[in-house]
Hints:
- There is one protein chain.
- By secondary structure, the chain is an alpha/beta fold.
- Helix content is 39%, strand content 14%.
Amino acid sequence: MIVFPEDFGWGAATASYQIEGGADTRGDSVWDAFCRWPGKTANGHDGSVACDHVHRFREDVALMKEIGLNCYRLSISWPRVMPSGTGQPSEEGLAFYDALFDALLEAGVTPWVTLFHWDLPLALHHQGGWLNPDAPKWFEDYAALLSDRFGDRVHHWMTFNEPQCTLGLGHVDGIHAPGLKLSYEEVLTALKHLLLAHGRAAKVLRSRSGQKVGIAPVSNLAYPATESAADIEACRSVGFDRGNGIWPQCFYLDPIVHGRWPDEQVRKLFPAFEPPTAEEMAIIHGPLDFIGLNYYHSQKMRAGADGKPEVVELPAGHPETAMGWPVVPEGLYWTVRFHHERYGLPSAITENGMANLDWVQSDGRVDDPQRVDYLRLHLRQLGRALNEGLPVWAYFHWSLMDNFEWAEGYHKRFGLVHVDFQTQKRTLKSSARAYQEIIRQGGVEEV
C-alpha cells in the first residue's frame, strides 16, 4: 500500500461554464457567444443548462460527501457575479456561491477556487478582452469582490486555469472561445495583460491573512524513456521551453515565480515585441504559495546518439483515452519533480482524468474499469513523488461529473459521476466507488 499523508487533499474538480447552467441568471460569457457560432461546438451544444448545478448543487455536494472528498476545486463564473464584468455586482450570483460554500463546509469539503476558467464576460470581450490595457484592473476589481465576499470561507485560490489554452486555443487557433486568430504581436500583448492581471489579483487575495494563492497551467513536460541520467537530462534540457507558439510553460511561470521574461522564446514569435517594463515585472513577479498542475498526458523523450533530446514514439496500440490522448502515468511523477526542481514550490494536481465511453447499463450501473485503472496508475506515480519528499498538497480528479466538454459538447464523459443530460439524473460510476475506497484507505495499493 502506498500511504498518502494524513492531511492530504482528496478532491475532484469542475468549472463554472461546464456544469452550472442557469444562463438566464447571469450575464453572457464569450462561451455563450461561441456556442451560438455555427459549427464551433459539436452538434451546436452549449452550456446554458449543462448539469444544472445552480439548482442541484446540494445534491452534488451530497455526492462529494458520499465519495469521501475532503476538498473540491471549482471556478467562479465572472459573468454570474458581475454580469457586465465591471461595475455593479449581482447579489443573486454572489448568493449562489455563498450557499455553495456553506454547503461544502457543512459537508466537510474544503473549497479551492479558480477565478478564471475561460468564461470571460462577453461585455469585456466587446471592449477588447485581454488585449485591452484595462484588463488587469478589471480582473483586480473582480478578485477584490471575491476576496471581500468569500475570503472568510475560501482560503485556497487559483487566478487562472490553463492560460495556455485561453491564449493558444482561444486567441491563436480560434477553436475555443472567443474564436480569435490573432497575430503573435497581439497574443503576446494579451499574455502580458493576463500576467499583470494575475499579479494584481494575487496581491489582493494575499492581502487577507491565511490565503494560499496559486495558478494552474497546463503541465505538458516531457518524461524520460528510461531513468538513466542522460535521458533525464534530455527531458530537463527541453523542459519548460517545450511546445510551439504560446504554449511553453516558461511563458507563464518564469515571469511569475522568477521575475524573468522569456526573451528568447518571445523573439522567436515576434522579435519587435516590447517586454514588460521593470514596474510591470514587479507586479507580475510576486510570491506564489503553490503551483496547480493540470496533467493528462505527455511525450516520452530520450538522449539520442548525439546526446540531443529526441522523441520516443509510443508503440501502435498504446492505451489511449476517448480524446485520443495517450495514457502515460509516468509523466505525472516527472511533472511534479521537474516543477519542484525549477520553482521550489509545493504543487497540487489540480486536474487529472480521462474521457471514457460510459453509459448506464441495463442493470442501472455505470462500470468504467478503464478510469478505475487510470486513477490507480496515476495515484501510484503521485505516491512515488510524495515518498521522495516532493511537496504535493492535493489531488483533484477531473471531473466530479460528466459535463459540457467545451468544443466537444456533451460527447466526451470525464466524470466520476454519470449525468443524464436529459433528466439530470446522477449515477456514481465504478470509478467513484474505487476512489471512495482509496480515500477510505488513505492510499492506493501497489501493483
